[in-house]
From TrEMBL:
InterPro entries: Sugar_P_trans_dom (IPR004853), TPT_transporter (IPR050186). The chain crosses the membrane at residues 12-32, 44-61, 73-91, 97-117, 149-171, 183-202, 214-241. This is Solute carrier family 35 member E3. It comes from Accipiter nisus (Eurasian sparrowhawk). Residues 19-290 form the Sugar phosphate transporter domain. The lineage of its organism: Eukaryota, Metazoa, Chordata, Craniata, Vertebrata. It is a multi-pass membrane protein. The keyword Ribonucleoprotein does not apply.
Length: 309
């Protein structure tokens, strides 16, 4: 997309991420609920297709691989495994509404991590917008009629690991001076190898319910399609974070939960109580307030740069 202006490239990247992220949620939920496809095995398929897609991209000249030491990528690969596995387990165990709203907690956690570990400061008004987001997530989870402890444990672990992962993605790209494709090119096969070793301990490999079980052709096609969409999600996450920031990416991501909530109610008959609706509204208000303040802050910074002699 080098021929496009910077704003056009960012808009295109956000749109690709929006469409792919919504599709992957519904498709994965369908594979879990309707087919009972094993979680870790599906994650392995996603990683493998992501690496294959990147291999084809570099063969076509889309990017040039950069030599990196395995120790430089290992923490990112470990957090990538945890990020995908725990969020998928949360999706499998919770309603789509609870799964999606729990992800909203990633933003407050990222703010805490960046404040404590990287010394980054946030204005008070930005911090205050995190209160209604957190309160809304709590209300939705508390009044979810399908609430279960295991599902919330997966959601909590998913939020913690996802927050670390997204902070590290931005930090590693700047530290190693690599772009999103170069970093993911090394990380995807390393994450695949980790899962390949772990899967036999937790899931069957052959036979009924295993990755090499008697799946129908339509099921295989859906799994492969899920992997292709996952590649698009992974690549767009890296690209957006590398060109904006982890917090900005998350605030954009929260707008997607409106569509996924509606889809969960329509496709999977997920119940939605009045109190849950209040929680969703509360979270939305926090997101809108954050976005308004963040845009105002960016405009103010631009004005200061223009006014400098």
């Amino acid at each position: 997309m080098g021929w496009m202006p910077a704003q056009g490239r960012l808009a295109a990247g956000l749109l690709v991420n929006l469409a792919a992220s919504i599709c992957i949620v519904f498709l994965n939920k369908w594979l879990y609920v309707r087919l009972g496809f094993p979680n870790l095995s599906l994650t392995l398929v996603h990683f493998a297709i992501t690496w294959l897609g990147l291999y084809l991209c570099q063969a076509l000249g889309a990017f040039s691989p950069k030599s990196l030491q395995p120790s430089q990528v290992l923490p990112l690969a470990l957090s990538f495994c945890g990020f995908v596995v725990f969020t998928n387990l949360s999706l499998q165990s919770n309603t789509i509404g609870t799964y999606q709203l729990a992800k909203a907690m990633t933003t407050p956690v990222i703010v805490v991590i960046q404040s404590l570990a990287y010394g980054k400061t946030f204005p008070l008004r930005i911090k205050l917008t995190l209160v209604p987001i957190t309160l809304g997530v709590f209300l939705n989870s508390y009044y979810d009629v399908k609430f279960n402890v295991l599902g919330m444990a997966f959601a909590t672990l998913g939020v913690l690991v996802t927050s670390l992962y997204q902070v590290w993605v931005g930090a590693k790209q700047h530290e190693l001076q690599v772009n999103s494709m170069q970093l993911l090119y090394y990380q995807a096969p390393m994450s695949s190898a980790m899962l390949l070793f772990i899967i036999p301990f937790f899931e069957p490999v052959f036979g009924e319910g295993g990755i090499f079980g008697p799946w129908t052709l339509s099921a295989v096609i859906m799994v492969l399609l899920s992997g292709i969409i996952a590649f698009m999600v992974n690549l767009s996450i890296y690209w957006i974070i590398g060109n904006t920031s982890p917090v900005t990416y998350n605030m954009f991501g929260h707008f997607k939960f409106c569509i996924t909530l509606l889809g969960g109610c329509l496709l999977f008959k997920d119940p939605l109580s009045v109190n849950q609706g209040l929680g969703i509204l509360c979270t939305l208000l926090g997101i809108l307030a954050y976005t308004h303040f963040k845009l105002s802050e960016q405009e103010s910074n631009k004005s200061k740069l223009v006014q400098r002699p």
